[in-house]
Design a protein that fits this description.
- The protein is α+β, with helices and mostly antiparallel strands.
- It is built from 50 helices and 44 strands.
- Strands 28, 29, 30, 31, 32, 33, 34, 35, 36 and 37 form a 10-stranded mixed beta sheet that branches.
- α4 runs parallel beside α6 (about 165-175).
- The longest helix is centred in the first third of the chain and has 21 residues, at about 75-95.
- The protein is globular and about 120 Å long.
């Protein structure tokens, strides 16, 4: 719009009069503050000065002042208006500075009563209400003040005058920089929409904080005349945390408000905080769709504020009354001004015209008000004692020609429009159909100010560039993602390491070689930034000493011309142990590179300075896969290579740390462009930040701190405890202990003590379902064989300790809790229960060969003398946690011990009796000192179970825990820590101190679970940032259940019991644990394919410790879907766990299996030939070639080679494979080349379990083969052996009748059992059971599950599970369908179901009910209570009756009316089924497990059976029209 010079002045003068009349006439001449409005109504006194309203009110004055700058202003209006702005901003500044003590306190506590007040007395600047009498904590109010201060300062206005004021503003930055984790009361001052004083994490507050931090960063508050000390600094990581949190939360406002019109100020003017244009559009559209109206926008759904139905006698609402406001919420014209400004800043003319047209009829002309002018003057002159209700006469009551009219027409925008009482019912029936009336708060100065500002820009009297000099409007216009090149400088700890790295082609520099640049520890940067904003006069301590993130350490820093570089904080392993794992360190490094690339904003490139140390790279040059290691005394240490989880000391795989840094030379790392080089070469292209503000800080030795940090080395106390690496290794799972035992369990080698672990077992009790037996005593599934009980050792002295996994609902539930490891009876000594009864040899126990008696005379073993001595004499010592009677003996033993496992157990015992400062006299150290020593030793040896135990005892907390929890919470994920009655629920971000208390409050029986919980939370945060889709359908993340899911996955893979699985879990390296968790989280794929590769390849393509391909020397794990065999749920054998394939050349109906084998050593042809039904097997490598067959299932379950010539690890893997096989499995072995060189005693013992009688006769390069069977006596196998010069063996042959094996299996498994009915019951081979277990542990639900449950609940009277009821009222009347709090209510209700798989069936039942109503709109559930267990049980009964009672299992015999019958038939005639009762009531547990393995879809899926049960049991009303 073009204006002549005269017309411009005319229009500006018009707006000057409008602004002067509506805004400046109200500005207090003393304080400069402006009241929010002139009204004092039944809803409150609006004449106080709100911080937020003042900033918005002065916007029009600020814009008009800038507009007057354009013209030759001889009347001084530009100066007058500018200083009116400065007066107001300084008035707010003074009011806040008078509460400087609150700013200082809030930085530490983020407590509600420690925050700045939200409003002040207009005349004095004093506070007007008490700390706890108002919702003062409003991060957005402080943030918009800082945002306006930055924009105004950038436009040339000087608002801050002194260094003290600069320091205060700097501390306001610290005040808001944790907005991402600070719940507040928000823009509407109420927090939760019920307004009962509960703050929430509000997106509008976080968004305004983002804008303020971005805008004020680098602003010199003294303008062009300022120096380094007047510049405001904001660390980039603080901005990014708020920025990412905001983008994760939008378009949701908070837990109780699914959308809020206040977000218009975040996605548009004034914040422009969102950088994703699509997210901006999505948020805007959702506001229009859900909140838009004819008179403006609603603030949020079910907003009762100032509606005629609101009870004004109280500030809060009752939960049930929110629903009465639905459809009649007041509409605010204010939000139309935001739409207009948004269109002006984004050049969207169509939007501008649309909302100008909508706003026009809502504006009230001041000329129509009879007493507006008098009201205006009176409102400012009223004393505090005479505040009465004063409102301008409403438009409908104006009298033409009244004396009170103003001389010209001034547009006035009312606060809101409400539905009058007599039109409420009509409006509810037909939304937006009735006329509304403006309330008495006229005008809303905030709205009038933004309207005036929009008019100035619309008429081209002001440009958007002038009102936004910092260019914030461009934030959402980015079209290309960041593709920043990350510069990496590698430094070596010393010249020796540099020389070694040079041998591998990796160029590094030492500290001396980067001179004159100083490389420092990030601790130094944290300490010097602590001086920022420090002011003794004001009592301000400066920046809280929080770690500096990767964005901060990727900058170079200059102080008085000297450059400093800082190593990244994430590589510091002294606070927590995660980065001591090389593989995990690599994954974190890759994540940080991607993070820096994505969020890098400042000019210049980021520069990462990495210090490589001997501790990080020690041993990486040597391969441990097939080589032995030597200890300090030159003795050989065996490294047991394992194909299963929970290996011993960590192996360096192909993608180790050294190789990772070598690959950076390619210039690409996971899609991130990188550049390796010398630090001096990187300076010119780096981002350099000034720290010259330190020069003015006389109270800090910044130079000493920075230089000291460069040479910082955390000192270690002198060693107090002994260490024998061989004995420590011997106690690790999977290796021999001095007491001649191979054990998965972590044992102390020198005394009989162990640990009571926390609870992680599947429930064995019911969940209080009114007598319904949901899960009986059997906790194993058909695919999970029972295992012997586990031993107990050291026990707590709390005799009445409750199981921590009971539900919090009732004491009855608590009695049925379950633990990480059941308190079972000790494992019987002597022969392993799984061995054959007639065998004199022993079956290796599980995956780690637990030998329960001395080996045979021909299996002599060399034991270290120290081991034998340590095993004797101390076995009788029994220690009980908390019982100090054995203190002296424990301390004496501790001083003699050289085994880390012994030491950590003894220290835990001492700590249970004393405190950390207890002095151990014979070691001249405190318990804490000794724990730290064990902690660092175990870190070096990668003994992760000890590391976790020590970390738990030391109460170590990873400092990034809060950030990761925030990343989860802001994405509407509720987190729980602990279990049972002490389970802590987290729905808002919490500080480190609170989290530490939750983790270490005595909730875990196993002290290692505390650190593991932290690991899980760290990994979850990492996953949700990298791949949010992984968490689809998951709203509640219960860490205890997640650990259960991890244990279940390990137990399933290794076919071990829960005790062993927990020990496997604790021995996993951090990277292995993270990879395993990623597998568990990939829920949908668990049923789509049956892969067992637990540790999936990560984004780095690094090889996982488990291979999914068959190759020599490793147990292969493949996809069971690759074969054509029809697997069934009943199989209890390993064939269903591994990749089973059909036996070759087995014709239809054939039950005969013929095997031929021949072997030739190196001098006898060097071959291995295995034929099955004349089909040659492809396995033929050096060592022992093995083929395993399951004769019951008729499948080949394993074909693998073990190179026992080159590695003892291969021999031990062979022993594990044999141990894993079930009795009766057919095993074919054939040697090639040489199989003797590294054939261990454990392997020989294992082969004896297959019936070998000649294995001890084999010598170097002999020929040997065997056709054996697991569990037969030694010497009973068909076997051939010839010495190395006697030629190949004869061909040995054996024929098997598979029917005999099946008959034997059936006779050992009486009906009704899985194997007896497997042939005729539909199943999914355990895949859906596994899927439901994992999804139940993760609380995963389908898309739109909660809104569908809301719809069901709105029609029914409630939903019942046992004695627990989810009632319709007040749930539905209080909460909306997509409200986060409603989802939490549903989750709390479903939590009464303890078993994860059962929980998922309950979820499916609700989905079935919802789908029935979706597909049949005329059918609705009548308002009665829906009993979920009753429906589920009916569906299972129908399934069982169809397939067992009336199917082949029951011979089609059913009693009258479907009554159960007892079938007594000949076993052969009944297809192998022996006589027994087949009724559902007698076999409900089995029926449940089989039902849980059905796929959801299909004619025989769970949905079909549940739908039949729903139609049968639920009362439906049918509307035929």
């Amino acid at each position: 719009m073009y204006h002549s010079q005269a017309n411009v002045r005319k229009r500006l003068d018009h707006y000057y009069r409008c602004v002067n009349t509506v805004i400046l006439n109200r500005q207090n001449p003393t304080t400069g503050l402006i009241p929010a409005s002139v009204a004092v109504t039944t809803h409150g006194d609006y004449r106080d000065a709100w911080v937020r309203d003042n900033v918005y009110s002065i916007m029009a004055v600020f814009g008009l002042a800038l507009a007057y700058r354009r013209i030759d202003d001889d009347e001084g209006r530009a100066y007058e208006l500018e200083h009116a702005v400065i007066k107001l901003m300084r008035g707010l500044l003074f009011s806040m500075m008078r509460q400087v003590h609150k700013v200082e306190q809030f930085k530490k506590t983020q407590a509600l009563n420690d925050c700045l007040h939200a409003k002040y007395n207009t005349a004095t600047g004093d506070t007007v209400v008490g700390d706890s009498e108002w919702g003062h904590l409003q991060i957005d109010a402080t943030s918009i003040f800082l945002l306006a201060l930055a924009q105004m300062t950038a436009s040339g206005m000087l608002i801050v005058y002194t260094a003290d004021e600069v320091d205060f503003i700097q501390n306001l930055v610290f005040y808001i920089e944790r907005a991402y984790r600070t719940p507040d009361y928000g823009i509407w001052e109420r927090g939760n929409k019920i307004n009962h004083g509960e703050p929430e994490l509000n997106s509008s507050s976080i968004g305004m904080a983002v804008a303020a931090l971005q805008a004020i960063n680098g602003i010199n508050l003294f303008g062009s005349r300022g120096g380094p000390s007047s510049v405001i600094h904001v660390l980039p990581d603080e901005i990014t945390r708020n920025y990412t949190t905001l983008h994760s939360a939008l378009p949701r406002e908070s837990n109780s408000k699914e959308i809020d019109a206040a977000l218009l100020s975040v996605i548009g003017f004034p914040a422009f905080a969102v950088g994703d244009a699509k997210l901006v559009e999505r948020t805007r559209n959702e506001i229009i769709e859900k909140l838009g109206g004819k008179y403006g926008c609603k603030r949020f759904l079910r907003d009762g504020h100032q509606t005629v139905l609101e009870n004004t006698s109280r500030l809060h609402y009752d939960a049930h009354e929110l629903q009465i406001f639905e459809g009649i919420e007041c509409e605010w014209p204010l939000f139309y001004t935001y739409f207009i400004l948004d269109g002006l800043f984004s050049d969207n003319e169509e939007q501008v015209e649309e909302y100008r047209a909508k706003l026009e009829p809502l504006i009230i002309d001041s000329a129509t008000l009879v007493d507006f002018g008098q009201f205006l003057s009176d409102s400012m002159s009223d004393s505090e004692d005479s505040r009465g209700l004063k409102t301008p006469t409403s438009p409908g009551f104006a009298s033409p020609g009244s004396d009170g009219k103003l001389p010209e027409h001034i547009p006035l925008i009312p606060e809101l429009y409400f539905v009058p009482n007599h039109l409420v019912d009509a409006e509810k029936k037909n939304k937006h159909s009735q006329a509304r009336i403006a309330n008495d708060n006229l005008p809303l100065v905030w709205a009038n100010s933004l309207h005036t500002l929009g008019n100035l820009i619309y008429e081209n009297l002001l440009s958007v560039a002038e009102i936004d000099p910092l260019g914030r409007r461009f934030n959402a216009r980015k079209t290309q993602p960041n593709d920043t090149v990350v510069q990496i400088v590698l430094l070596a700890e010393d010249a020796n390491l540099q020389s070694m790295l040079n041998m591998y082609g990796l160029e590094t520099q030492t500290m001396d070689q980067v001179h004159p640049i100083t490389v420092s520890h990030p601790q130094g940067l944290k300490e010097v930034y602590g001086a920022l904003g420090r002011n003794a006069k004001l009592g301000l301590s400066g920046r809280p000493k929080r770690p500096i993130g990767s964005l901060g350490t990727s900058r170079l820093y200059r102080v008085q011309g000297h450059l400093y570089a800082f190593t990244p904080h994430f590589m510091d392993n002294e606070e927590f142990y995660l980065t001591s794992d090389n593989d995990y360190l690599i994954s974190i490094f890759e994540q940080e590179l991607a993070f820096v690339r994505q969020y890098w904003v400042p000019p210049g490139r980021p520069t990462m300075t990495i210090l490589l140390t001997h501790a990080m790279l020690g041993g990486l040059s040597k391969s441990r896969s097939f080589a032995s290691q030597m200890d300090a005394d030159g003795r050989q240490l065996t490294t047991w290579r394992k194909a299963s989880l929970g290996s011993g000391p960590q192996k360096d795989n192909k993608r180790n740390l050294l190789n990772f840094f070598m690959t950076l030379r390619s210039g690409i790392c996971n899609g991130v462009r990188v550049r390796l080089g010398r630090l001096s070469e990187m300076v010119n292209t780096s981002c350099i930040e000034s720290l010259d503000f330190l020069v003015a800080k006389k109270d800090i030795d910044w130079l000493g701190i920075l230089r000291g940090a460069a040479d910082r080395r955390k000192g270690r106390n002198a060693r107090k405890l002994g260490l024998n690496e061989k004995q420590t290794q011997a106690a690790t799972p999977g290796t021999r202990t001095p007491s001649h035992r191979w054990s998965m369990r972590r044992r102390s080698s020198s005394f009989a003590i162990g640990l009571t672990l926390a609870s992680l077992t599947t429930p064995s009790g019911n969940s209080d379902h009114d007598g319904d037996s949901y899960f009986g005593s059997q906790s194993q599934t058909p695919l999970e064989p029972s295992f012997p009980a586990s031993p107990l050792f050291m026990t707590p002295s709390r005799p009445d300790t409750q199981d921590p996994y009971a539900t919090k609902r009732s004491k009855k539930d608590q009695a049925k809790a379950f633990k990480l490891k059941d308190h079972e009876e000790p494992r019987p000594k002597g022969k392993n229960p799984g061995s054959g009864s007639g065998s004199g040899a022993l079956t290796p126990d599980l995956a780690n060969l637990q030998i329960s008696e001395a080996p045979s005379s021909d299996a002599t073993q060399d034991e270290d003398e120290d081991s034998d001595e340590s095993a004797d004499g101390m076995d009788s010592l029994g220690l009980t946690l908390g019982d100090p009677s054995q203190m002296e003996a424990a301390m004496s033993m501790l001083s003699l011990s050289v085994n880390l496992y012994d030491q950590i157990d003894l220290l835990q015992y001492l700590l249970s009796c004393q405190d950390m400062d207890f002095y151990v006299s014979n070691l001249d150290a405190t318990v804490q000192t000794l724990l730290e020593e064990v902690y660092f030793k175990s870190l070096q040896l990668k003994l992760w179970s000890i590391v976790r135990q020590a970390a738990g005892l030391l109460h170590k907390v990873v400092n990034s825990l809060t950030i990761n929890i925030t990343d989860l919470v802001i994405r509407q994920k509720q987190i729980t820590i602990g279990s049972g009655p002490t389970e802590h629920f987290i729905t808002t971000p919490l500080g480190p101190d609170v989290l530490s208390g939750m983790i270490y409050d005595g909730n875990f029986d196993d002290v290692r679970e505390g650190p593991v919980v932290q690991e899980v939370l760290i990994y979850l945060g990492s996953f949700v940032r990298a791949d949010p889709a992984m968490f689809e359908g998951i709203m509640r993340l219960r860490t205890h259940f997640l650990i259960i899911a991890l244990r279940e996955e390990i137990s399933r893979l290794n076919s071990c019991d829960e005790t062993d699985a927990v020990e496997h879990l604790m021995q996993l390296s951090p990277f292995e644990l993270k990879s395993l968790l990623g597998t568990v989280l990939s829920g949908p794929t668990l049923s789509a394919n049956a892969t067992n590769m637990l540790l999936r390849n990560q984004s780095s393509s690094r090889l996982s410790p488990i291979s999914g391909r068959r190759h020599a020397g490793n147990i292969s794990l493949t996809d069971a879907t690759d074969c054509n065999v029809t697997p069934n749920i009943a199989s209890s054998g390993p064939s269903m766990s591994l990749g089973a394939v059909p036996i070759p050349n087995m014709s239809a109906g054939s039950t005969t299996l013929t095997i031929k084998v021949q072997s030739g050593g190196y001098h006898s042809g060097n071959f291995s030939k295995i034929l099955i039904n004349e089909s040659t097997m492809s396995v033929s490598s050096r060592g022992i070639n093995v083929v395993a067959i399951d004769p019951v299932q008729g499948v080949l379950i394993e074909s693998v080679s073990f190179d026992t010539h080159i590695s003892e690890d291969e021999s031990d893997d062979l022993a594990r494979l044999v141990d894993w096989l079930h009795p009766g499995m057919i095993v074919i072995c054939s040697g090639k080349d040489d199989s003797f060189e590294h054939l261990t005693t454990a392997a020989r013992l294992a082969l004896k379990q297959l019936g070998s009688g000649k294995i001890n006769d084999i010598k170097y390069r002999d020929s040997w083969c065997m056709i054996g069977e697991k569990g037969i006596e030694a010497g009973k196998a068909v076997e051939a052996h010839k010495s190395f010069m006697d030629g190949p063996t004869d061909v040995i042959e054996k024929t098997f009748d598979l029917d005999l094996y099946k008959a034997k299996a059936d006779s050992l498994d009486p009906f009704p059992s899985p194997s007896a009915i497997a042939a005729f019951v539909p199943n999914s081979s355990g895949r859906w059971l596994r899927r439901r277990k994992n999804d139940g542990s993760l609380n995963r639900v389908p898309t739109k599950f909660y809104p569908r449950v809301w719809r069901i609940l709105s029609r029914a009277a409630g939903i019942r599970i046992g004695s627990h009821l989810l009632p319709r009222d007040p749930i539905v009347s209080e909460k909306t369908a997509e409200e986060f709090n409603f989802a939490l209510a549903v989750e709390n209700f479903l939590d009464v179901i303890i078993d994860p798989a059962e929980r998922q069936i309950a979820v499916e039942t609700l989905m079935v009910i919802a789908k029935i109503e979706d597909r049949s709109p005329g059918m609705e559930v009548q308002p009665e209570v829906i009993d979920l267990p009753l429906i589920m049980r009916e569906a299972m009964n129908t399934f069982w009756t169809k397939w067992v009672v009336n199917g082949p299992g029951g011979q089609g015999q059913a009693g009258v009316g479907g009554a159960p019958v007892v079938v007594a038939t000949d076993a052969t005639a009944a297809g192998g089924i022996e006589k027994g009762d087949v009724s559902f009531e007698h076999h409900e547990q089995l029926a449940r497990r089989m039902f849980y393995d059905l796929p959801p879809e299909g004619k025989e899926g769970t949905f079909a059976y549940l739908a039949r049960a729903v139609f049968k049991l639920l009362p439906y009303s049918i509307d035929l029209e």
